[in-house]
Amino acid sequence: MSQADAGSAGPATGALGKRNLTTIHAVAQALAIGPMFSVALVLGGVSRPDIGAGWNAALAVLLAGLGVLAIAYTISLYARRYSGAGAVYEYLTHGAHPWVGVFTAGFFFAGALFLGGGGIYLGLGILSDGFWKSHISDGGPSWWVWGMIALGIVLVLNYIGVRIAIRAMLTFAAISFLPMLVLALVIIVKGGESGNTLSMFNPGETSLFGITGGGVLGGILLGILLFVGFEAAASIGEESENPHRSIPRALIWTVAVAAAFYVVMAYAISVGYGKEAVSKGAWAGSPGPVSELATKYIGSWYSTILELVIILDAMALALAICVMIGRGFFALGRDGLLPKVFAKTSRYDTPWVGNLMVAVGGIGLVILASVTSYSTKFGAIGPDGKFIQFFPTDAFATFIMSATVGSYAIELVYLILAVVAVRLVPKAGNHWWQYLIVLVAVATPLLGFYGALHPAPHDRSNVNWEALYWTIGLIVVSLVWFAIVLVSRRSNVDNAAAHAAEHHGVPPLDETLGFEPLPEGKMPL
């Protein structure tokens, strides 16, 4: 390619908003984990007796939470040195090598489209349709119409300003948190089905690795999926007052609080159903476990409140992921790795073209749910020789499959980040316990993959294996894209993420998180 061509293919210009976002805005972005939404639609999967943790669901969630906390600490090592709109893309470009950063960005953002950038609109459609039919009318719009309405709201709010979108996230999250926690406390105070017990934290209840099922580790993949999205906090680094302080705080504290919340909810729901019912799949197989328990322990009126709460929290999740995806595609467009149109911003300084990629994900998955028969495909042959269908509708089956694809892709990114982070530890204190945390961060996604793919059957009737094939497809597409930009725009690849150069003079990490610096060799409690 000639020098002239290289110049024409160079990085596009673009500018986001002022650096006026703070730690609370980063926390709102980290709430892309969608805690209430995840409790309603994802947490039950951890208790699946066939490939999950069964009665040990709370233990699996606890282990996943500790592992993701290590991942959050690891990502904070990057966040205190680099900041940019593309987050993971800039982290690996500068922390490892431009080729690693650019290639990883490909399947990270593609995976995000399957998760919160697309799959969430299937979830919102399903939830809104169920609420309408239960409380308003048996008729009304189809489920996918509700999903598209949610998509439109998300795009409008993200178009008119990141601060407005983040305020909406915080409002939705605040409104939805308390009612869910009240349900857990009521169940625990009433003693659940058969009294309070800590036996679900004994791995001997289902075994650690599993024999015919997944065991405790079998629940870790979906346990980790509960937290996927927390890294979205890093996407507003370019618009933050002090990203090297606020982003690390948001990452670690949000994951820690969310982990405690998930463990409490897993415990409460477990005792709410009782050991025998959970072990037989009552929680995993329920289309609405939160509503079911709310009706049983409080009343149907409270179930209605929680259904609205879950929808609000899902909207907060969708808003946060749109912020992350829009800025990711903006960063790649600005650096000349995607067409320059992706670097366009609105008069509100928002990456409106990048934001539109969530429409690609949402509409694409709605079409996939309409043309496939995943509900009749995912299942198993029971003892009586009959096929047991795992999911009630094609839409719900597609939602679970797409969420698993996104989880695989993003957990692979977590693994790469953790491995590369070993190089950053010497710059962040060089303490032995920091290496230990990084090793835990490496082990967590590996255990998640093992737990998800170890159980039989190893074929496409297993949703985890179907998702694996889709994930491999994403990696292949990302490789093709990377090869194209490497050949046609080599200089852009080699100079990727120049705007997110390493920040020098950052405070010690413990000070960044709000602690006093520790004496040499001491490990934080």
From TrEMBL:
InterPro entries: AA/rel_permease1, APC_superfamily. One of its GO terms (molecular function) is transmembrane transporter activity. It is a multi-pass membrane protein. GO terms for cellular component: plasma membrane. Gene3D superfamilies: Amino acid/polyamine transporter I (1.20.1740.10). Keywords: Cell membrane, Membrane, Transmembrane, Transmembrane helix. Its main location: membrane. It is found in: Cell membrane. The keyword Transmembrane helix applies. The chain crosses the membrane at residues 26-46, 58-79, 99-123, 143-162, 169-188, 208-230, 250-269, 308-332, 352-375, 395-420, 432-452, 467-487. This is Amino acid permease. It comes from Gaiella occulta.
